[in-house]
């Protein structure tokens, strides 16, 4: 399936394909599809129109890996970094950073924290002013995630995440991310907050409704978000999503010239494991 690359983007694609322009390196990033039940809904943020990347688009919580996310002092419960590395075909240090970034960014952008006092419990309320102060300190990078967890006597709960997909931003983009997608269910007792920051609005939406809005031109969804929501629309509950076997395939949309026009070709994403 090809998407037109008009104007400057198309010219940039031609320069890259001709070897006259080098692509920008992709930065490691993590994205979390946060779900809740009755009915199944996904949490989406609408990025501000002034953002340099994906301006105005509806996205899942997520962002770049902070170098401190790979800190070995991050308190951890659940599958270890090495296991996540096997799933995403990444080295252990990269995997540690990705999982930590997924949990940290989810808290920063939604107020939801996938952590607890131990490996069997999870915090139930993160809405107080002290939590908000910590969230803002994390966003400002004045506080590392390891320090945040240690201060509160918490451990990261990697078992509350499920690996879902791996997308790399096309070489034609001036800002590129090597993004691993995770899925998580809203923990009992917690609720999301309209936290602002990079978002101009937030919403819980049924995947099918978000897709319909995009098709009608009422919502802008990037291809990875659209594809992921289409996959979520096949399930009835977060439990069904977690129970589904998943094989991770790296998806890198590629520019191509078709009938004299530059287009972006998007391959199939990961599917259920055999």
TrEMBL record:
Keywords tagged on the record: Hydrolase, Magnesium, Manganese, Metal-binding
GO terms for MF? hydrolase activity, acting on acid anhydrides, in phosphorus-containing anhydrides; metal ion binding
The record's section on InterPro entries has:
NUDIX_hydrolase-like_dom_sf, NUDIX_hydrolase_dom, NUDT19
The leader peptide range reads: none
Residue span, Nudix hydrolase domain = 25-227
Gene3D superfamilies, per this entry?
Nucleoside Triphosphate Pyrophosphohydrolase
Listed PROSITE patterns? NUDIX
Task: Name the cofactor(s).
Answer: Mg(2+); Mn(2+)
Q: What is this protein called?
A: Nudix hydrolase domain-containing protein
What is the species listed in this Swiss-Prot or TrEMBL entry?
Answer: Microbispora bryophytorum
Q: What is the lineage of its organism?
A: Bacteria, Bacillati, Actinomycetota, Actinomycetes, Streptosporangiales
């Amino acid at each position: 399936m090809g998407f037109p690359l008009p104007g400057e983007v198309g010219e940039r694609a031609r320069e890259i394909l001709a070897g006259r322009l080098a692509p920008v390196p992709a930065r490691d990033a993590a994205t979390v599809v946060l779900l809740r039940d009755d009915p199944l809904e996904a949490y989406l943020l609408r990025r501000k129109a002034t953002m340099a990347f994906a301006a105005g688009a509806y996205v899942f919580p997520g962002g770049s890996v902070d170098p401190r996310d790979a800190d070995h002092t991050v308190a951890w419960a659940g599958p270890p970094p090495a296991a996540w590395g096997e799933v995403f075909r990444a080295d252990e240090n990269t995997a540690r950073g990705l999982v930590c970034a997924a949990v940290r960014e989810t808290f920063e952008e939604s107020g939801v924290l996938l952590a607890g006092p131990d490996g069997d419990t999870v915090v139930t309320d993160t809405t107080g002013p002290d939590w908000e102060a910590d969230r803002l300190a994390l966003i400002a990078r004045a506080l590392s995630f390891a320090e945040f967890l240690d201060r509160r006597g918490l451990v990261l709960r990697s078992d509350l995440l499920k690996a879902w997909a791996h997308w790399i931003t096309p070489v034609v983009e001036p800002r590129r991310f090597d993004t691993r997608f995770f899925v998580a269910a809203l923990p009992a007792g917690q609720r999301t907050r309209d936290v602002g920051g990079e978002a101009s609005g937030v919403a819980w939406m049924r995947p099918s409704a978000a897709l319909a809005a995009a098709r009608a031109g009422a919502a802008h969804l990037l291809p990875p978000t659209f594809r992921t929501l289409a996959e979520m629309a096949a399930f009835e509950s977060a439990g069904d999503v977690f129970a589904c076997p998943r094989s991770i395939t790296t998806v890198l949309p590629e520019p191509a010239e078709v009938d004299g026009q530059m287009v972006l070709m998007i391959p199939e994403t990961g599917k259920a494991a055999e």
